């Protein structure tokens, strides 16, 4: 039987339980697999989006006092900002946890209904068993030692594609909204502010926007907006804006034949030199080199790139 929780803030201060070990580095992810057990700490939380997959067992998860029942062979997705803990485990199977940075999750440009559900605090799950999910999750876990950038990009692409399929297929909502009356409401306001800034960036990054414009989208001062954004995403507003523009630029470099100068301007960079500086700093190679490497590694693109 699931444990009943009182106020999480009465148990342990929220700010003292932020789990920084569950926040992946840029363009990366964290994956773990183990036999699920009850948490040693009263609860924990982190700023990553978490994807869980149970095999041969199921469990009860408490999110700020609300209980979600996780079934075997179903993908479960939620934003780890809400305090959560395992309260009951049934069976002796395994759980695989994938942690994605919130910035990565947003930069993918997934269907808005799915993004809104996760950022509003919902806990969602795939509706049906899909034998391919176990194959996918197990393969990614078994290949976690392959840390070279091409492998990491491939694994991230596979995770992204599965989430896109989840959005198309529809999902079951295990928890519809964060629990109220337990200290979560203030933090929910902070999440809404960050969500407003993320949405403004995703809709306007190709335009000449700056930190002041982004802060205004959440009705905050630039200083306060920067602090809130960094507290939740562990990255500055300016850095996230640059990464969003670079993500779009990579897509244009690989999927179009546009000149590099056009890619730079179409991705929101003020000048070609600014684009080159940001791109080489992030990827350790020039945009042209990145394009050539991507074409060589993709036979389809290489064929169509021939004169």
Automatic annotation (TrEMBL):
<keyword id="KW-0238">DNA-binding</keyword>
<dbReference type="InterPro" id="IPR009057">
    <property type="entry name" value="Homeodomain-like_sf"/>
</dbReference>
<dbReference type="InterPro" id="IPR018062">
    <property type="entry name" value="HTH_AraC-typ_CS"/>
</dbReference>
<dbReference type="Pfam" id="PF12833">
    <property type="entry name" value="HTH_18"/>
</dbReference>
<dbReference type="InterPro" id="IPR018060">
    <property type="entry name" value="HTH_AraC"/>
</dbReference>
<keyword id="KW-0804">Transcription</keyword>
<protein>
    <submittedName>
        <fullName>Melibiose operon regulatory protein</fullName>
    </submittedName>
</protein>
<dbReference type="GO" id="GO:0043565">
    <property type="term" value="F:sequence-specific DNA binding"/>
</dbReference>
<keyword id="KW-0805">Transcription regulation</keyword>
<dbReference type="GO" id="GO:0003700">
    <property type="term" value="F:DNA-binding transcription factor activity"/>
</dbReference>
<feature type="domain" description="HTH araC/xylS-type">
    <location>
        <begin position="195"/>
        <end position="293"/>
    </location>
</feature>
């Amino acid at each position: 039987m699931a444990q009943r929780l009182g106020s999480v803030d009465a148990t342990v201060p929220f700010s003292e339980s932020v789990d920084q070990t569950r926040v992946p580095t840029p363009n990366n992810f964290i994956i773990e697999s183990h036999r699920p057990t009850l948490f040693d700490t009263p609860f924990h939380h982190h700023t990553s989006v978490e994807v869980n997959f149970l095999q041969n067992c199921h469990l009860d998860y408490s999110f700020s006092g609300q209980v979600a029942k996780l079934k075997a062979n179903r993908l479960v997705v939620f934003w780890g900002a809400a305090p959560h803990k395992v309260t009951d485990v049934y069976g002796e199977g395994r759980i695989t946890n994938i942690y994605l940075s919130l910035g990565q999750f947003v930069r993918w440009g997934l269907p808005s209904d799915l993004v809104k559900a996760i950022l509003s605090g919902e806990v969602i799950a795939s509706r049906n068993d899909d034998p391919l999910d176990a194959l996918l999750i197990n393969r990614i876990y078994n290949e976690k030692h392959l840390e070279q950038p091409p492998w990491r990009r491939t694994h991230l692409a596979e995770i992204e594609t599965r989430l896109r399929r989840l959005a198309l297929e529809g999902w079951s909502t295990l928890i519809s909204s964060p629990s109220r009356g337990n200290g979560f409401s203030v933090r929910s306001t902070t999440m809404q502010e960050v969500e407003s800034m993320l949405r403004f960036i995703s809709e306007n990054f190709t335009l000449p926007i700056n930190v002041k414009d982004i802060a205004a989208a959440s009705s905050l001062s630039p200083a306060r907006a920067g602090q809130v954004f960094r507290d939740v995403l562990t990255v500055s507003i300016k850095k996230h804006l640059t990464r969003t523009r670079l993500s779009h630029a990579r897509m244009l470099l690989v999927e179009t034949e546009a000149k590099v100068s056009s890619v730079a301007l179409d991705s929101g960079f003020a000048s070609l030199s600014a684009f080159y500086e940001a791109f080489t700093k992030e990827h350790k190679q020039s945009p042209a080199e990145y394009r050539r490497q991507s074409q060589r590694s993709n036979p389809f693109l290489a064929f169509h790139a021939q004169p």
